[in-house]
UniProtKB/TrEMBL annotation:
<feature type="domain" description="HTH marR-type">
    <location>
        <begin position="8"/>
        <end position="140"/>
    </location>
</feature>
<dbReference type="InterPro" id="IPR012712">
    <property type="entry name" value="HpaR/FarR"/>
</dbReference>
<protein>
    <submittedName>
        <fullName>Homoprotocatechuate degradation operon regulator, HpaR</fullName>
    </submittedName>
</protein>
<dbReference type="Pfam" id="PF12802">
    <property type="entry name" value="MarR_2"/>
</dbReference>
<dbReference type="InterPro" id="IPR036390">
    <property type="entry name" value="WH_DNA-bd_sf"/>
</dbReference>
<dbReference type="InterPro" id="IPR036388">
    <property type="entry name" value="WH-like_DNA-bd_sf"/>
</dbReference>
<dbReference type="InterPro" id="IPR000835">
    <property type="entry name" value="HTH_MarR-typ"/>
</dbReference>
<dbReference type="InterPro" id="IPR039422">
    <property type="entry name" value="MarR/SlyA-like"/>
</dbReference>
Length: 144
């Protein structure tokens, strides 16, 4: 008999199940707009920013650099993003949303917020804030 906790109480698995339950609300929205989860993460990270360097974008989207570079290239071909030269260092490139990327954000954002409202409605009052706080507490740099 193992000293490990029961498989059903395995935290990584519980977090994966929760992620899948949440993403099940968002995937149809993204699919209807021709987006992958990673592309939407990039659009969300860039929205409201003039542009971001690729390292910052990787950190914000939790995407590995090789994957991010490949995805951004595809998004650039689809005219969702543009790469621009860094004004401080002409050797560096930054990424920004194109007009089409901004329009895509405006089309998807209200649907995304509606999905969030459904998720929150399924939790007893105020527990979404507690859930965010608990998840934040798991991060190494958390102040808690």
């Amino acid at each position: 008999m193992s000293d490990l906790r029961p498989f059903e109480r395995n935290l990584p698995m519980a977090l994966l199940r929760a992620r899948e339950a949440v993403m099940a609300r968002f995937r149809p929205i993204l699919r209807d707009h021709g987006l992958t989860e990673q592309q939407w993460r990039i659009i969300r990270a860039l929205e409201g920013e003039d542009d971001l360097d690729i390292s910052t974008l990787a950190e914000r989207t939790l995407l590995l650099m090789p994957s991010l570079t490949r995805i951004v290239t595809g998004m650039e071909e689809a005219e969702l993003v543009r790469r621009v030269t860094d004004t401080q260092d002409a050797r560096r490139r930054r990424v920004r949303l194109s007009r089409r990327g901004q329009a895509t954000f405006r089309a998807v954002a209200p649907l995304s917020e509606a999905a969030y409202a459904e998720i929150e409605a399924g939790l007893p009052g105020g527990q979404i804030a507690t859930l965010y706080d608990l998840l934040d507490a798991l991060e190494p740099e958390s102040e808690s």
